[in-house]
Every structure is written in C-alpha cells, then in structure tokens.
Design brief:
Blueprint: H1 7-13, H2 17-28, E1 44-47, E2 52-55, E3 63-64, H3 79-91, H4 98-105, H5 109-122, E4 139-146, H6 155-163, E5 171-178, E6 183-188, H7 193-203, E7 209-212, H8 217-224, E8 228-231, H9 246-261, H10 271-283, H11 290-298, H12 308-311
Parallel strand pairs: 4-7, 7-8
Antiparallel strand pairs: 1-2, 2-3, 4-5, 5-6
Helix pairs in contact: 3-5, 3-11, 4-5, 7-8, 9-10
Domain ISXO2-like transposase: 130-283
Protein name: Unclassified family transposase
InterPro entries: IS1016-like_transposase (IPR053164), Tnp_ISXO2-like (IPR024445)
C-alpha cells in the first residue's frame, strides 16, 4: 500500500513498524540521510533486530530510535499509537478528546491526555512571517474571553464580570486574522495596552490596514506601529461595507466549539496549546488533505519536548 489517504488506510498502514519508521525518516530526514541526534553526524548503521540506529562516533547514547529528539522521546508507547493519535488530532475539525483517543488506540485516558498535549506542541505555528504590510488585505484584530459564564457567577462578582476590563476570572485570547490568509492567536494577561501591543506588533507588519472594534487600546496600538486603522462600532451594526471583524469572529466560533463541545473544561495553564491546535486547523483548512495535514504535523515534531512535569505545571516548560 502507498501512503495512506484516509483514517482506515492509516490504521492498516501504520500497524506495521517498518512503515512507521519509514514515515518518520521521510519527515525528519527528507533526503534519506539519517543524522545522529547527539553528535549531528550521518555515520550511522541500522540495527534491524532493535529497530534502532547506532552512531559510529564514540559518545554517550550512540544508539537511538526514530523517536529520539522528538515529542515522542522516552514514551513507552509505539509509533503506531503515536501516529494514529497524530492523524486523528490533526484532522478532526473540532478536536478529539483524550477519552476518544484512549478508546481508539487502547491506552489509558491519562496517557491519551498527555499524548495530545505533546502533539499540540508540534502543531504550534512555525512560520513567524508577519501578517499584512502596506497594500495587503485588511487585518482583523479582536479579543475574546474563555471561561465561566457571567450569568453563573455569584452576584458579587457578576457586576465586575460585566465590565470585562481584565477578564475577571476569564482567560483572554487575542487574535489577528488577515483576510484570505492566516490567523495568529494567543493568551494575553489582560486587555490593556502593555499586554496587547507586543503580540500585535510582533505579528502584524508596519503599514498594515487594521480593523478592530471600539476597544480603546486599538487606536494607540495603531499609532505606535504605523497602522492604518478603521473601527467597526458594534453598537451601530456589525458590518459597514468592508469594515467588520466577522473573519476573526468566525475563528472564535471555531475555537469555542472545540473548547466547549469537545474538551468541555480547559485549565488556563493549558489554554495556549488548545489555541495553537485551532490556529493550525484554521490555517490548514484549504488546499490540504488529511494526509498532508498529518505530514505537516509530523514534520514539526523534531526538536521539541514536553514532559509530564511540565504539562502539569510542576516545572517550567523546556525552551528550545
């Protein structure tokens, strides 16, 4: 069988260890030359009995598998399970829960939960090219709240909740969408200028055409970064010709459909990874097949690591 194109084909294809290893080699080393992750040399030999390579240089950790140096490193689970979980998460439109993964690949829910967080790390956007620029399509910028509903709050907190100034127990996600292009999004501390200006300036090129709602910080952000700025006043309507933020609002709808419909409850310390997952899915929704989306995630697993202590917040995540 050639490379799989559907979930059923993937299940059959990746049940063979040799196919899993061949896929990892194709994505990690496209030229077919296997590199030792410890010393960086290509003088290695294949140990067929162990499904590993051995570097001929003299150093510690001479033997290595296809998982070493990736998000899969030190996992006792086989690549067949990892690749199936990666296929499912990269292609399910509203995400896939850890319970669903556990039932489908035969692991515990705890293991599936940890696996999904590691796969989300590989789904993080790697293209740091700024959106927009002079003469480009408009950039819609907006923020949304993720968390408990104000109507469910105690009365003493509800008044503050209606203010929406600093979240009041909710997490705040800031997003920027280039019409006809990509979206960038991430969690910010609050809706004030110091917290919001940095992410916008880092992701939107100077001279861009910025469209926002009436939030008071956006004119200051536009002035500091040389943006041409237009405002849609939602008290008067949601569309005024080309002035609207319906594109980024659509992304918020996709994000919250996954958070509330699939994942139900998300801890604030994990929210950034769930946002990264939806950003990947949104940016790769067109001109992609299930196979190419899967391949793209797999091509980004190298050089990243997330331990259980890091994902549970016991230690800070490793910086690469």
């Amino acid at each position: 069988m050639s490379s799989p194109k559907t979930l059923q084909q993937a299940i059959i294809f990746y049940s063979e260890p040799k196919n899993c290893i061949a896929e990892m080699v194709a994505q990690r080393w496209p030229d077919g030359v296997v590199i030792c992750p410890t010393c960086g040399r290509n003088d290695v030999s294949w140990l067929a009995a162990q499904n590993k390579w051995q570097c001929k240089s003299r150093h510690a950790k001479r033997q290595f598998s296809a998982k070493v140096g990736t998000i899969f490193e030190d996992s006792p689970l086989g690549l067949d399970k990892w690749l199936m979980a990666t296929w499912m998460l990269s292609n399910c439109k509203n995400g896939v829960s850890s319970y669903e993964i556990a039932r489908n690949i035969g692991v515990t829910q705890k293991s599936a939960w940890f696996m999904l967080h590691r796969i989300r790390l590989a789904m993080t956007e790697t293209d740091d090219t700024q959106l927009g620029g002079a003469g480009s399509a408009p950039i819609e910028v907006d923020e949304t709240f993720v968390g408990g509903k104000v109507k469910n709050m105690h009365k003493s907190k509800r008044v503050k909740g209606l203010n929406y100034s600093a979240g009041n127990g909710k997490a705040i996600v800031l997003g920027m969408l280039e019409r006809g292009g990509k979206v960038r999004a991430g969690v910010v501390e609050n809706r004030k200028l110091p917290s919001m200006n940095g992410p916008v300036a880092a992701n939107v090129a100077a001279g861009s055409h910025l469209i926002s709602d009436e939030h008071a910080v956006y004119p200051f952000i536009a002035a500091q970064n040389a943006y041409y700025h237009e405002i849609i006043k939602h008290v008067e309507g949601y569309v005024n010709g080309h002035i609207h933020t319906n594109g980024i609002e659509n992304f918020w709808s996709c994000l919250k459909r996954g958070l509330t419909g699939t994942y139900i409850s998300v801890e604030p310390i994990h929210l950034d990874r769930y946002v990264d997952e939806q950003v990947f899915r949104f940016n790769n929704r067109h001109k992609q097949t299930d196979a190419t989306r899967f391949a793209k995630v797999l091509s980004q697993v190298t050089g990243k690591r997330l331990t259980y202590a890091e994902v549970t917040g016991k230690v800070h995540e490793t910086a690469f």
